Amino acid sequence: MSTYTLHITGMTCDHCARTAEDALNALPGVTAQVSYEEGIAQVMSPKDVAIERLIERVEAKGFKARLSE
Ligand SMILES: [Cu+2]
Q1: CB 56 within 8 A of CB 65
Q2: How much is the pLDDT for 42?
Q3: Which residues, chain by chain, have CB under 5 Å from ion ligand 1?
Q4: Distance from the CA of 11 to the center of ligand 1, in angstroms?
Q5: Consecutive H or E run containing 8
Q6: What does the pLDDT read at residue 61?
Q7: What was the pLDDT predicted at 69?
Q8: Structural domains of the chain ordered from first start
Q9: What is the DSSP string of 15-65?
Q10: Number of Cβ within a 10 Å radius of residue 34
Q11: Gyration radius from the chain CA atoms
Q12: DSSP secondary structure letter of residue 68
């Protein structure tokens, strides 16, 4: 498993965070927790799931995501 922290911008409420979280969790094997207050997603994902796919899932919902360093 790999763990990532994503910074997410464009969320305006807890519902947005849940939308982003659900989008990530819909990927097989991925477990994500998204905090609206922090603007952060904590993601655990199988190694064969590219980080780009995680970012795409979030951005498909209308948010911007980038990997935290
Ligand atoms: Cu919202």
Answers
A1: no
A2: 98
A3: 12-13, 15-16
A4: 6
A5: strand 2-9
A6: 98
A7: 76
A8: 2-67 (3.30.70.100)
A9: HHHHHHHHHHHTSTT-EEEEETTTTEEEEEE-TTS-HHHHHHHHHTTT-EE
A10: 26
A11: 10
A12: -
Distance (Å, rounded) from C-alpha 6 to C-alpha 48? 18
17-29 b/e with 16+ CB inside 10 Å = b? Answer: bebbbebbbebee
What's the token pair of residue 22?
């659900």
User: Which pair of tokens denotes residue 15?
Assistant: 């519902």
Q: Mark the ranges of the chain whose per-residue pLDDT is less than 70.
A: none
CA of 8 to the centre of ligand 1 (A): 12
Tokens matching residue 57: 């899932």
Ligand 1 centre from 46 Cα, in Å? 28
pLDDT of residue 29: 97
Cα–Cα dist 69/44, whole Å: 16
